[in-house]
Design brief:
The chain has 925 residues and is of the alpha/beta class. It is built from 30 helices and 34 strands. The protein is 38% helix and 16% strand.
């Protein structure tokens, strides 16, 4: 230091531009050294100077990093790593108030007392150091700098109400992670900054915050050491911290150092508390806002003039006290603790033969305990390093490579990666020490590469855990009042700004279910703004879509392709149901009304097309009197009505009225009055939906599969359901009503008094085996007497009707397309056991004898009430000799008085259209 060299103390609160001023002053000189408190801050300043002067003249030296170009002019270092012997023109020490820090204060005090530039020396820090500097540095000049913006207290705020561009400060890793997790759920994400992060990870996290990907920063008190970030508000989640020895309250000046990060340059800032932190006391608030704190009275000091003549002399020099009233001996730091641990080991004592060995041991003990496991384990590692350096002059490369390889793994969670990063810092420090390893460049690059990989992996894990990128992107766009553009692919997946936010099912947005409840609320709020234009565009496409893209379900739902877009709603007119559209409220009334109108058009046209015969009949003004009444009842029943239900009206119809109804396709069957065209699958399906809707059923019966002549009859299912489906229950099965009428036409030609057997035509029409047909006939009111007889030889037998041939439907209104139905496969004959069994066949004789069925349902009369068979007919219900008004025994047939066997529980046929309804009945039982 020259006689005319200046020593200046630039003191003041945060945001006064002290570091910026120091950089300007250093670059004004030919050479310079600046010491900074953190490796992170050193990297930040290094990047700034490198951008101004280029990389060839700027060096970065920290415990774990050493970048020294050949033509270095400016050295950016951590305070511990400052080269003091190079004789630089300029020397600066930042955050000089750390002279009072219990752990590192002795290093800053040593720089305050001994580090000088040839032309200029700068000490930057808090104004609390003014008295101490004035007493310890002769001739020092003071430069008081005022804060460029206002800092004010804003009280306590919940995390959910935290303003954007806020930093929330915690004092433990667990606390930081918990806050970050909560911010992610409520605000879309945050960046995380801690002193233990590598510069690469820290820079990546800060970039998330600085570029606006996230609006929140969760950090330890490391942000208080000069890190320049765009922060508007600082919130303390606690005002106590563990300082390595005990839990203690933070001093007002420590709180001010952190709170001062809020408000940069001329932008005002605020500070407050959040979570469980108690509100700050009024005197503390005033001190922070006015930047007035108690001055520092004692600086931490450790003797820098060490004696290496013997271990005892070295320890004595380290424990030496000072008489200076401003200085106090620092407590034993990690290096002294490690030295004392190693000096008691016999194997270490044997290697200490001269002062050089003791100096080497001291250098090894100064390796920081980055791992923080335990002093004993750390001392064990140092002892091994000393063993290599003392015996071989270098750290064994195989041992070094093995330890580095163990760490070079990027899998695992945040804690695992953080631990590996701490471990690699130890090996990085060793590789940076001059002459400690062979091929220094190789090992420096190797450890740096591992640190970079771990840093990138840690950044990825932090981002994955604490940043919901899609929500943060949406919120940022909304905050910037930018229009959000949503896109929907062919799978219905909705993306906004490239981020998947959910699926669009029709006009209802289904949010991605991976989001937590807090995230879901934020995500929906942000995404609706992007979806509104999409809803309108989709509504236009929907309105112009052809009817072929729409369909109704058997439970009354309305589909657009595979998306549910509405449902049918009951109205006073069963043939004109109303429509309820499934549209999110956010889409707006116009979109909802457009969707509803289009669905109403669809269902109205569908009813008009499938029920055209009914609608034509209802509009026929030539129908009058009783014919019009019957037509009205048919329309109400949607084309299918049991004859017994309107028997008197049918009996009273004259031939002209019947003819007018037949012109509209009405068939007057023995069991049912119906329109054959309305028994086709499509009208049947719609009739079931409309009738079920009008009757207010909770669950609609489903339409039977097309082509089935009979289906299982489940006694618990109401008979009206079978009628709606176009079937008539008879015994264990229900037969389609048009086929039942064809069967009735055949039965009229049979002698129901004397008895008759089933013909192949009867079996073909019903599609049943003989046993099934016998049960069906009993369900229709016939007695079935089983018998056996010898088989007729084929040569003598009359030609049998082809069971696959269509029945003659000259006397019935046959259903189009029914001729191709296949009867049920006949039972295969059992293997012959003896000749007698081969010679016998089973047959049934049927006679008219209506009786209650096993399901306790009254048998319906095959003809209308009081109506007899046609003149000359042999079948039907017998009435004497068949003449009108005859009084034979057939008027009141004698019922069989045999006790009916107990009904067997019927297994639910999965093909039965009423299986769902039956399951409901059984559940109630």
């Amino acid at each position: 230091m020259r006689a005319n060299a200046r020593v200046v103390a630039v003191l003041g609160p945060t945001n006064t531009g002290k570091t910026h001023y120091a950089i300007e002053r250093m670059l004004a000189h030919r050479t310079g050294v600046i010491g900074l408190p953190l490796r992170l801050l050193a990297r930040e300043v290094y990047d700034r100077i490198k951008a101004l002067r280029g990389p060839d003249c700027v060096a970065l030296v920290t415990g774990e990093e050493r970048i020294v170009p050949d033509r270095t002019q400016y050295w950016v270092c951590t305070v511990e790593a400052m080269p003091l012997e190079i004789g630089a023109d300029f020397v600066a020490i930042d955050e000089i108030q750390l002279c009072a820090d219990p752990d590192r204060g002795h290093v800053f005090t040593d720089r305050l007392l001994h580090a000088r530039g040839l032309h200029e020396t700068l000490f930057m820090g808090s104004d609390t150091m003014r008295s101490a500097i004035a007493a310890l540095v002769p001739g020092v000049q003071f430069n008081r700098r005022e804060r460029m913006s206002k800092l004010s207290y804003s009280g306590s705020k919940k995390l959910s109400r935290m303003p954007a561009r806020s930093a929330i400060v915690g004092f433990s890793v667990e606390n930081v992670y918990a806050i970050a997790e909560l911010i992610r759920r409520q605000k879309g994400g945050c960046a995380v900054v801690m002193g233990a992060l590598s510069p690469r990870t820290r820079n990546a996290q800060v970039e998330l915050y600085q570029n606006g990907d996230v609006d929140y920063l969760v950090a330890t008190d490391a942000i208080g050491m000069g890190l320049n970030l765009d922060i508007k508000h600082v919130a303390f989640s606690a005002t106590r911290k563990f300082d390595g020895r005990r839990m203690r309250m933070l001093n007002p000046d420590e709180l001010a150092q952190i709170a001062g990060r809020a408000g940069r340059y001329q932008n005002d800032g605020s500070f407050g508390v959040t979570g469980e932190a108690s509100p700050l006391a009024d005197e503390v608030i005033e001190a922070i806002e006015t930047h007035k704190f108690l001055p520092v009275r004692k600086l931490q000091w450790r003797n820098a003039k060490l004696e290496f003549g013997s271990p005892k002399r070295l320890l004595d020099s380290l424990e030496q006290h000072t008489n200076n009233e401003w200085l106090t001996r620092a407590r034993d730091a990690d290096d002294v603790v490690a030295l004392k641990s190693l000096l008691v080991l016999p194997e270490v004592q044997d290697r200490l033969r001269d002062p050089r060995d003791l100096r080497l041991l001291w250098d090894v003990c100064r390796i920081p305990d980055f791992r923080g496991i335990s002093p004993t384990e750390h001392a064990g590692l140092l002892g091994r390093v000393f063993e290599f350096l003392h015996g071989q002059g270098r750290v064994d490369p195989d041992w070094l490579a093995l330890n580095i390889k163990r760490i070079d793994r990027t899998e695992g969670d945040i804690d695992a990666l953080s631990k590996r990063l701490a471990y690699i810092r130890t090996w990085t420090y060793i590789a940076q020490r001059k002459a400690w390893v062979d091929d220094e460049n190789h090992w420096r690059e190797a450890t740096r590469a591992v640190e970079d990989r771990l840093s990138d992996a840690l950044h990825a894990r932090l981002t994955q855990r604490f940043v919901d990128r899609r929500t943060s992107v949406l919120l940022r766009r909304l905050k910037q009042k930018e229009s959000l553009v949503a896109d929907v692919n062919d799978k219905g997946e909705v993306t906004v700004e490239g981020e998947l936010i959910g699926r669009l099912e029709g006009f209802r947005f289904k949010q991605d279910k991976t989001a937590s409840p807090d995230e879901a609320k934020t995500l929906r709020q942000a995404s609706i703004a992007a979806l509104v234009p999409l809803f309108h565009l989709r509504a236009d496409t929907f309105y112009n879509a052809p009817d072929t893209e729409f369909e109704f379900t058997e439970q009354g739902g309305l589909m657009w392709g595979t998306s549910a877009v509405g449902k049918l709603v009951r109205s006073d007119d069963a043939m004109r149901p109303m429509v309820e559209a499934f549209v999110d409220d956010e889409a707006g009334h116009d979109v909802a009304e457009k969707v509803r109108r289009r669905l109403q058009h669809f269902i109205d046209r569908k009813i008009a097309a499938l029920f055209e015969p009914l609608l034509n009949m209802s509009r026929d003004e030539t129908l009058s009197g009783l014919a019009r009444g019957v037509a009205f009842q048919l329309v109400e029943a949607m084309g299918v009505i049991p004859r017994a239900q309107i028997a008197n009206d049918i009996k009273a119809l004259d031939q002209d009225a019947r003819g007018m109804l037949r012109k509209h396709g009405v068939r007057f069957g023995q069991f049912t009055i119906f329109l054959p065209l309305l028994l086709k699958p499509a009208p049947t399906r719609l009739r079931l939906v409309l009738r079920s809707l009008h009757e207010g059923l909770d669950e609609f019966p489903e339409s039977p599969p097309p082509g089935l002549v009979t289906i299982p009859h489940i006694t618990e299912v109401p008979g009206a359901h079978y009628t709606m489906a176009g079937y008539h229950p008879a015994g264990a099965r229900a037969i389609r009503i048009d086929m039942l009428e064809r069967l009735a036409d055949l039965l009229r030609a049979c002698d129901s008094r004397a008895g008759f057997e089933a013909t192949p035509d009867m079996l073909s029409i019903t599609g049943t085996t003989l046993e099934q047909f016998a049960d069906l006939m009993q369900g229709l009111g016939y007695a079935a007497e089983k018998g056996e007889r010898e088989k007729v030889k084929p040569a003598d037998a009359a030609p049998a009707a082809d069971p696959q041939a269509p029945a003659d439907d000259a006397s019935a209104d046959a259903m189009p397309g029914d001729e191709g139905h296949a009867p049920a496969e006949a039972e295969a004959p059992a293997p012959a056991e003896d000749a007698a069994a081969d010679a016998l066949e089973v047959f049934y004789t049927f006679t008219w004898a209506p009786r209650p069925r096993r399901d306790s349902r009254p048998a319906r009369k095959p003809e209308g009430e009081g109506r007899g068979p046609r003149k000359g007919a042999k079948g039907g219900k017998p009435k004497g000799d068949g003449r009108k008004g005859g009084k034979g025994d057939g008027r009141k047939p004698e019922r069989e008085k045999q006790a009916a066997p107990a009904p067997k529980p019927q297994r639910i046929d999965p093909d039965n259209p009423f299986a769902a309804a039956l399951a409901g009945f059984k559940a109630k039982d």
